[in-house]
Amino acid sequence: MGSNFQFSSIGFFSKAPSKYNTESNPTLISNQTLSGNISQILQHRNNRIMFNPILVFLVFIVLVCPTSCRKHHVINFRWHNLYPESFIWDPQSEHFVLGSLRQRTLLSVSDAGVTSYLLSDTSLPPNSSFLGLALDRRHHRILAVVHRFSTPTTPAFNALASYHLSTFHQLFLTPLPPTPLHSTVVANDVAVDFSGNAYVTDSANDVIYKLNIEGQASILSKSQAFKFHPVDRNVPYHNCGLNGVVHNSKGYLLVIQSNTGKLFKVNDDDGTAREVILNRDLTAADGIAVRSDGVVVVVSQYKLYFIKSDDNWSEGVVFDETALEEERQASAVVVGANDRVYALYGHVDEGVMGNTEREEFSIVEVESENESKGENVWIFVLIGLGLVYFLFWRFQMRQLVQNMNKKTA
């Protein structure tokens, strides 16, 4: 027995009444019915195709928004009376390495705040501190500035120690000789070059030492440029001169001077120095680091400065400042994974006092607000372009469907 069918909108045959008898004329289908069915098929395909741009647009939003809206990385860790003055980032182990003002100890801290003991050097004089640290990955070493303050019963001690990066055995310990005009040295920070030479700042006398890979020390620079600017004797850091130091592969050091807020460029071969002209002083500057894009970051107890130069550091511009928590006494800065900038809250002023106890310290990510605003603008531009593309595509598909309907009418 014969049956009556029509072409459904999803491409299958379904049973339905018809005013035509297909048994007597099976090929008879009205043009109006056929055109309506074709329109429905095209519209359904259009709806299916439209899903792809929507999906792409949503995936784009999901991928972009976490990048622009992520929270700053904060690492809280615990170690009794550590009071770290400096730290470094080891990209291979993906851990931070920290020293201590009160202990002859180096330890590592993961990005989750898990602490691990690395070494305790009992060969150092009692009450010694690890101050500046430098990673010499090429020669598998950690370089650490060792300092002990003088007391009525113990003399001061200033040296550079080198430890093997895997075994943490001491490779050398070199005391830093005083200059003819100065009997007291205050070793502070250290940087290392590609050949393994180390550069140590003396904050008491504005002197830079150079040590070769074997640990033999000499004075690289005691330039008069370091003495050019007067020092305000009323500020608490007036006796801290040359401090944070980094090495550039082009053959020079960038060194900050805490008590004047000046930045110096020093030749790593002959020690000649000149001031880098900046648009503002780096008040109470302490640690220094460099991002992969050449931006220099300088930390003080009060702020983190972002500095750039277009002329190989004859001049520079402080293009942003980010306020820090003054009471937590930031003292060091490093550039970690993905060029993220981290400051160390080590409570160093409290640690120097010697009559306090503390368990918890922090490493916090710090961003330039000006750079973040620029990144957000580009993100919204990309989102806008994606939305324009989507609307244009949808308009084109509607035009196509309308044209097909007209041809089949």
UniProtKB/TrEMBL annotation:
Keywords annotated in UniProt: Membrane, Transmembrane, Transmembrane helix
Transmembrane regions: 377-395
Name assigned to this protein: Uncharacterized protein LOC111369341
UniProt superkingdom: Eukaryota
Keyword Zinc-finger appears in the UniProt entry: no
Classification of source organism: Eukaryota, Viridiplantae, Streptophyta, Embryophyta, Tracheophyta
GO cellular component: a single term: endoplasmic reticulum
